[in-house]
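cron nightly-structures :: item 1 of 1
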Amino acid sequence: MARVLFICTGNYYRSRFAEALFNHLCEERGLDHSAFSRGLATWVILDGSELSPDTIDALNERSISLKLTHRAPRQLQEKDLESADRVIALKEAEHRRMMEHQFPAWADRITYWHVHDIDVAHPEEALPEIEVRVMALLEQIQTASEADTAQ
């Protein structure tokens, strides 16, 4: 099973939405992939809650089970990067410097998206953008899988 790692700052909002959405769509499509998520600075989540209310609402609106991401935020570790087949950080301008500082050997080896956090973009903008990107990623994965099967 191939694994995708989604990274954001607090592992509370964007990466958790991407994780649950990806896992839900893989289940629906019968794909042998799964996602997990981590944060580069989980200590920024000061209220002690496990998951952003905006993420909860967006997942509920899409009838996606919270069990696909039900846990407390988790700090990124080297073993997480090593165990993933594909690594995606949600915003290059925010996460590249953090990666260079915490995991310099990995900073240029991952994919960066450009999805703003809640301080710049409202969830009604950011979460649908993540959804579009996750869908495009799944299309890439399915196309590659079909090409491998045809050979």
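cron nightly-structures :: done
Helices lie at 14-29, 53-61, 78-83, 92-102, 123-150.
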